[in-house]
Amino acid sequence: MNKARVGSEYIPLVEDEMSKARLVLSFSKLAWFTVSLPFLAFIFCIVWSVLYNFEHSTSTHCKVYNFLPSVSAAIGHYKPQRDIWKAAIAVQAVIRVLVLLMYYRFYKERIYKWAQSICNIAIFTYAIENISLVTLSFWTSDENYAFHKLSFIMFLITSFIHMLVAYFIMKNCLNSTREYSEIASLKWKRRAMIFNLSCVAFACYFFYRHNKYCEPLVYSMFALSEYGVVLSNMGFHSTAAWDFANSRLMISGTGFRII
Predict the structure, then answer these.
(1) Which one of 106, 136, 159, 171 counts the least CB within 10 Å of its CB?
(2) 106 closest CA partner among 161, 27, 37
(3) Of 191, 197, 233, 223, nearest to 35 (Cα)?
(4) Distant-in-sequence, close-in-space partners of 254: CB < 8 Å, separation ≥ 6
(5) 53 vs 2, more confident
């Protein structure tokens, strides 16, 4: 570092090069990128399974015709689908830690004090949902059915609780006027939450009919409902792009910070 001497004091003239080097990213674009990873991986897994693993991925104990694989079959039974899905989930899980920190700061700064305990529920369920998604993806039903099933149930429960609580917070607990992007976020949060609950109900209904009556195509309708659950969850989390439309992530040699 270059320094100028004044008396017995040294005054820095140029900052260290490592502290000057920095990369500034739009948090909105980062949020879209985070959601696009599992979305593209999910579409790939479904299409690849239909094209190259059709017979096995759509077969059930009923031995009747179906044309779509379940989510578990598409993402966890075959390669390269399984590896691509795991890679996408691992990367997005790391980035979602930053999103979690963003929401933690947002709730502290923009939410009424009386609602902070509700915010803690949103933060907790967000974290558990993310962990459950990782565990159900890395421990497939083929490898450990009991753990995969438990992770999937935890994912469904915590994801819906998070949707409900996060929507309630954004609708009723803001201590300042909503920006235009936050109004759009609230609208799409509501739509994604309603669609998610509807798809869960349909999935339960078709799963019951499939096991009770063994009708052709019913398992495919169950699989289609599962797709709706997954995609609506992604849609809900994509609203972070609107919640933090004006935020930036600055990465430098000394670490990162949100501006």
Answers:
(1) 171
(2) 27
(3) 233
(4) 18, 19
(5) 53
Closest CA to 163 of 131, 129, 137: 129
Residue among 176, 81, 166, 76 at smallest CA distance from 118: 166
- Which single residue is written with the structure tokens 């040294």? 10
pLDDT in tens, 193-251: 999 999 999 999 999 999 999 999 999 999 999 999 999 999 999 999 999 998 887 76
Look up residue 31 and give its two tokens.
């949020």
Largest Cα–Cα distance in the chain? 92
Between CA 25 and CA 93 the distance in angstroms is: 18
Helices (DSSP H) in the chain: which residue ranges? 17-20, 27-52, 54-57, 71-76, 81-110, 116-138, 145-172, 180-213, 218-238, 240-243
Residue 5 has pLDDT above 80, yes or no: no
Rounded distance, CA 83 to CA 76, Å?
Answer: 9
DSSP 158-206: HHHHHHHHHHHHHHH-BSSPPPHHHHHHHHHHHHHHHHHHHHHHHHHHH
Residue 252 has pLDDT above 80, yes or no: no
3/21 Cα distance (integer angstroms): 20
pTM for the model stands at 0.87
